[in-house]
Design a protein that fits this description.
The protein is an alpha/beta fold. It is built from 11 helices and 8 strands. The chain has an 8-stranded parallel beta barrel, surrounded by 8 helices. Helix 2 packs across helix 4, helix 4 packs parallel to helix 5 and helix 6 packs parallel to helix 8. Bound molecules: 3-methyl-2-oxobutanoic acid.
Amino acid sequence: MAVTLRTLQQCKKDGSKFSVATAYDACFATQISAAGIDAMLIGDSLGMVLQGHDSTLPVTVADIAYHTACVARGNQGALIMADLPFMSAATLERALDASHQLMAAGANMVKLEGAGWLAPTISALKQNGVPVCAHLGLTPQSVNTFGGYRVQGRDEETANQLIADAQALAAAGADVLLLECVPRAVTAKIVAAVTVPVIGIGAGPECDGQVLVMHDLLGITPGKPARFVKNFLDGQASISDAFKAYDTAIKDGSFPAAEHCF
Ligand code: KIV
């Protein structure tokens, strides 16, 4: 049966976990969705893992739309989430136009990065029938503002701001939140404070769902892996088995473990 937004909402209600992996092409989309992974994200991480850039900033709406269409053709029933890339939601008009292109390419939901100031954009997207995931914490499109890829919400003031932003975006209509690189104690407060499903990456096991970049979970990203990454191909006989192991580890609560958290 196809995974929908309602499936994720039911997981939140039941206290069961769901799995998400990034995907960018039809062949991997088939492998990922057939392995039982609930949702696939066409992330602007494609700028780094596919295109070789050193940030996600050069990625365009056309890039995401192209890869969303590829993933949709290979999909075996997972929910498809597509990223609004850098500056594509800078005005309401641009956000609506970009979301139109991504939904027409096969997305079931768009994801956008930011903070509390996204509330009016999220409301407008919702009014136009676009389900929204709001990405908070370490938002890689703001790497130049942050001065690097750093854990967010480490002190009381920034943690409280993150919690307030999460509540404001859920109240504005965000269907799902995604927290990146947030201390797990802060995550726990956010997960308890909102009724929408919360996906985490480097945000701890308290989240309702977990996401990793597929190249990271297969251990093929060059360089030192981030603390929150685990290589699921290690000890498996095939890529398909690695995706199944990732899905199982999320659902049985063994991933992320303490060593993957902040
Ligand atoms: O672009 C992406 O792949 C993402 C995930 C890392 C959450 O935003």
